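Archive record:
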Amino acid sequence: MLILILVCVLWGQASVGAAEFYEHWSDGRAEVSSYEVVQPRYGEMRAGYGVMIFVTEDIHRDTHIKVESPLSAQKRLYVLKLNNVLKFNTGMYDYSVMTSVFSEVEAAEYAFALRKISLSAQEWCGHVFDEVQVRGGRLNGTLNSYFESEGRREYQLERERNFASEDGLLIRMRELKGELLATGERMELQLLPGLWSLRMAHAEHALVAATLDKGEVVEIESRGAQLAAHIWTLETAAGWKKYWIEKAYPHRILRWEHSDGGRGELKKTIRVPYWSLHDNADETYRRELDIP
């Protein structure tokens, strides 16, 4: 009887999280959040800004490309997509970076299992495109770079049992359909570092040992408001990264700090169908987000 009660309680918690997810994320809008960012590059700290766009959509089960035509439900994957935009200057020239993460909402393994990551990075020397697709037990990657030493190539990695993507954790840590970890709990991971982190270091794609901790709730000041947040810590041999995730649903990413000095802080969140806001008059939304 005790086991049955426990199962019912756990199922109830999961179902509440799922119901909350669909109620919030099926309204035909995207969550758009702007951030003040400090980005280390070439041994100096650079002031910049970031935008994180979270939105649900369908991608093709076979190609992992967004569905824009009639297609059976069996061929669709319902995903939460994150477009993580970063802009900053280095002296005379600027950087423009975007990482896209596609996580399957109702994946068989666990909620928000990674299906694809892509990175595009542009600066005045040239541009780079890097994509990883998760196919069964493998990570299949393709890199196109303007550097001769990198050029065009493909790579493969085995997907370990405790695999996680640093880019994908920005979705999973938000716990949008129930807890990933209990407060104070730690998870051991085989981690694919963020594609932008690998790009900055010109490092090979490889999984590294990592730990993820969900800390206690703390009160932080965010643009004049006092907000409760869990502190999450991701650690590897290369250093640590901390994220302050809002306790209240939908658990926005409020702040981050990295051991290399990088950091970011939330400025504004709005929910809008941004893809239709493309007229000159719609630049008012950029002013509302406080981005150039």
User: Anything to note?
Assistant: The two ends are 60 Å apart (CA to CA). Residues 1-15 have pLDDT under 50 and may be disordered. The helical segments are 2-25, 166-172, 195-201, 284-289. The chain has one domain: 31-289.
